[in-house]
Amino acid sequence: QVQLVESGGGLVQAGGSLRLSCVASGNNLRINDMAWYRQTPGKQRELVARIRSGGSTEYDDSVKGRFTVSRDNAKNTVYLQMNSLKSEDTAVYFCYARIVRFSYERDYWGLGTQVAVSS
C-alpha cells in the first residue's frame, strides 16, 4: 500500500515562511512526478509547483520567486519552501505523486495540510 503524508503546515504571519514536507511510503516504488497543489473552499484544486524525476520544476505564476519545490529521491520526499507568504496563500496544501509500483502507474494524493497566513 502506498501513502503520502504531508507535514509542516500551520499559522504564520504575512511575510513569514513555512516548509512543507511529504513522504511517500510503501515498497517497490518508482516515483515520477511529485507536486504540490492547494485548494480553498468553493474552488478547484490548483497546481502550485511540480518537480519531475529528473529535477525540472514548474510553478504557478502566483508563487514564482517565493516558493521552491525540491525532492530527496533517497527519502521519497518532496518539499515546498514557502517564503514571503501572503494571505492569498491560505489554503489546504496537498501532496501529489505519480508512482509506478509492480509495473503499474497511478496517481496518489496526501490528505492535505492546512496553511493559514494572517495579514
Brief sketch in words of this structure:
The protein has no helices and 11 strands. With 119 residues, the chain is an all-beta fold.
Layout of SSEs?
Layout: E1 3-7, E2 10-13, E3 18-25, E4 29-39, E5 46-51, E6 57-59, E7 67-72, E8 77-82, E9 91-101, E10 104-109, E11 113-118
Parallel strand pairs: 2-11
Antiparallel strand pairs: 1-3, 3-8, 4-5, 4-9, 5-6, 7-8, 9-10, 9-11
What does this protein look like?
- This protein is mostly beta strands and 119 residues long.
- The chain is 0% helix and 61% strand.
- The chain is built from no helices and 11 strands.
- It has strands spanning 3-7, 10-13, 18-25, 29-39, 46-51, 57-59, 67-72, 77-82, 91-101, 104-109, 113-118.
- It starts with a strand and ends with a strand.
- The mean pLDDT is 97.
Helix content: under 10%
**Amount of beta strand:** over 45%
Compute the number of strand runs: 11
Residue windows where pLDDT falls under 50 for at least 5 positions = none
